[in-house]
UniProtKB/TrEMBL annotation:
Residues 23-277 form the EAL domain. The chain holds residues 446 to 722 of 722 of the full protein. It comes from Paractinoplanes durhamensis. Keywords: Membrane, Transmembrane, Transmembrane helix. This is Diguanylate cyclase/phosphodiesterase.
Length: 277
């Protein structure tokens, strides 16, 4: 048994070193990436039923690395959070997304989305001055606070403290607050009592099997009832098929997001979707 453990360790340790090395490399490259403008944003439609009008878009960051190709935010956001660059990157994301929405509202008039949803990490939220920086961006881009939704994950606000204080301040100013990946954390329901949530984003895992009678459908139904009971908006995430969309609509969902309506792209087709429906 002792020998087995030793073998396991020998196999495991280099892999761990490799991972933390990779982590360190990515971290160093993030600085350059920011300076050289290797990031861009893509936007995924959030549609309202039954019209299928794009009422909002979620901004998602992309890193076009000169040699690695496109690096997923799942890989580099945690690294940026760890080395603190998320503050600068996040500020750039917020400013870029708001400026973009302001442009669309000029170019597309009533077909433009009403709001943009921006993912914000705990580190950003908890920083003194975050709320002031949001107000500065809105003033600079000419957007009202009602045009912005801040998306936070359950883990980001789990510990309370300055992150949650910032959310209360933003909410009081009219910014919408969405709890992301709702239902996958340890304290989803508890957070609804402490965080000034306006929107729950029902996780894709509940949407995946919503067409089959079973647990997922029951949970999806319970969550839409919960949102109605609390006066919250519910957005179903990761809707990939017309069948899922129909099932969700039957359950009472009005806001859907997913590949069925559009992948995240630089320039969503705001005129197209409702017209084609
Ligand atoms: P998220 O906020 O839950 O974003 C939804 C993810 O699901 C996106 O992946 C999106 O492309 C993907 N998705 C949307 N619809 C579908 C669908 O129908 N099917 C499938 N299979 N996937 C779908 P993405 O863009 O790779 O982002 C992954 C995560 O990275 C995000 O999860 C978010 O946690 C983080 N992230 C992305 N952009 C930002 C950002 O600007 N700031 C921060 N702090 N985090 C970000
Ligand atoms: Ca999100
Ligand atoms: Ca999500
Ligand atoms: Ca997610």
């Amino acid at each position: 048994a002792a020998k087995g453990t030793g073998d396991q360790l020998r196999r495991w340790t280099p892999a761990l070193d490799e991972r933390s090395l990779e982590h360190a490399r990515l971290g160093a490259e993030l600085r350059t990436a920011l300076d050289e403008g290797q990031f861009h944003l893509v936007y995924q439609p959030i549609v309202e039923l039954p019209s299928e009008r794009i009422v909002a878009v979620e901004a998602l960051v992309r890193w076009e690395h000169p040699t690695r190709g496109t690096v997923s935010p799942v890989e580099f956001i945690p690294v940026a959070e760890q080395n603190g660059l998320i503050v600068e990157l996040g500020a750039w994301i917020l400013r870029t997304a708001c400026a973009r929405l302001a442009d669309w509202q000029v170019c597309h008039g009533p077909n433009a989305p009403d709001r943009v949803s921006v993912n914000v990490s705990a580190k950003q939220l908890a920083r003194p001055g975050f709320v002031a920086s949001v107000l500065a961006v809105l003033a600079e881009t000419g957007l009202s606070t009602e045009c912005l939704t801040v998306e936070v994950t359950e883990t980001a606000v789990f510990e309370g403290g300055p992150a949650v204080t910032a959310l209360h301040e933003l909410r009081a100013l009219g910014v919408a607050i969405a709890l992301d990946d709702f239902g996958t954390g340890h304290s989803s329901l508890g957070l609804l009592q402490t965080v000034p949530v306006t929107t729950i984003k029902v996780d894709k895992s509940f949407v995946d099997n919503v067409t089959q009678a079973g647990r997922h459908a029951v949970i999806a139904e319970t969550l839409i009832r919960l949102s109605h009971g609390l006066g919250l908006t519910a957005v179903a995430e990761g809707v990939e098929t017309a069948e899922q969309a129909a099932a969700l609509q039957r359950l009472g969902y009005r806001y859907l997001q997913g590949y069925h309506y559009g992948r995240p792209v630089a320039e969503p087709d705001f005129e197209g979707i409702a017209a084609a429906a």
